[in-house]
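Quick illustration, no need to memorize.
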Amino acid sequence: MAEPLLLVNLLVSPMVDESSVPADLLRGCLSCAYAGKRKKPAVMDLLITGDPEITKLNRRHLGKDEATDVLAFDDGEMEDDRLRLGDVAVSADTARREADRRGVPFDQELLFYTLHGLLHLLGMRDDLSSDRAKMHALQAKAMRDFGIEPAAELVTRLEEDQDE
């Protein structure tokens, strides 16, 4: 079997139940989304962690003393003949809380955040609501391209972003 265009080095923090993390789903969908955008072999690191650790990362790197859903740190270096895209950190605590609040499956909420991080590594920004809506639409497309129909509540959130 051919190696995927995007290698995802997945690290699950000890504060997260590793069995709750759909590793194959995350790696597969991220690889599919990347292959739809780029043709150069690449690698990225993905950390699934909890609110305490992502708060520390947010404070250290962005000066914000609060939990967030996803952080992305681009790199652009080469690693073993692959472009090193960078690092993405996702809070499983935030994903669980938001999934429960919105009635979305946890796996989809977590996947949504990881795809968002990948898009940041590829240079997309979400400072403006129109940019955020474009990113969210690409995240939903990546899910569909991988064979996952986003939950209705996730689609509603995307439509709300477009209305802002």
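DSSP finds six helices and four strands in the chain.
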